[in-house]
Amino acid sequence: MKNVLILLAVFLCFTAFNAQQKEVPSMKYEDLEKRIQKENDKLLVVNFWATTCAPCVKELPDFMEINNKFKDNPKFKMILVSLDRLVDKERVIKFIKNKNLTAEVVLLDDIKRMNTWIPKFEKNWDGNIPVTIFYKNGQKVHFNDGEMGKEDLEKTINDNLQ
């Protein structure tokens, strides 16, 4: 019995380690827009952040706690959109591992066209991060400009998951 428990513990540790991304896909705005529309049967939480943004890094543990709480719900999905530069992709991958990020992470490699795609996401977005946008059935249902606390994040999810 003891050996079974040890094997189970090793398996769970291995599974948890594999839950983290080892690669981060980079994409342009149009690809991200298609990716968001692809999840049209879910409540999709899209968080824009960067490894160099202190408020972004501060809120990520709460986002991971909430992501882990809802990840088994087939009507829920969280995507973290890194606005780090493409040349910093390895730093993003290392950050994912060090911070134990369990949500899907993509790198938006489209900084030069920020003034074009930012207003397409939200007309009131001034470009600052963090920003979190909630989509339900492919339609934007909530925009949060700035840091988002765990309670607000969970409440917004619960209000829109019905």
UniProtKB/TrEMBL annotation:
Q: Which residues form the Thioredoxin domain?
A: 18-162
- What GO terms are given for molecular function? antioxidant activity; oxidoreductase activity
Q: Which PROSITE patterns match?
A: THIOREDOXIN_1, THIOREDOXIN_2
Its keywords, alphabetically, are: Redox-active center, Signal
Any signal peptide, and if so, which residues? 1-19
Name of the protein in question: Thioredoxin-like
Q: Which organism is it from?
A: Chryseobacterium oleae
Lineage of source species: Bacteria, Pseudomonadati, Bacteroidota, Flavobacteriia, Flavobacteriales
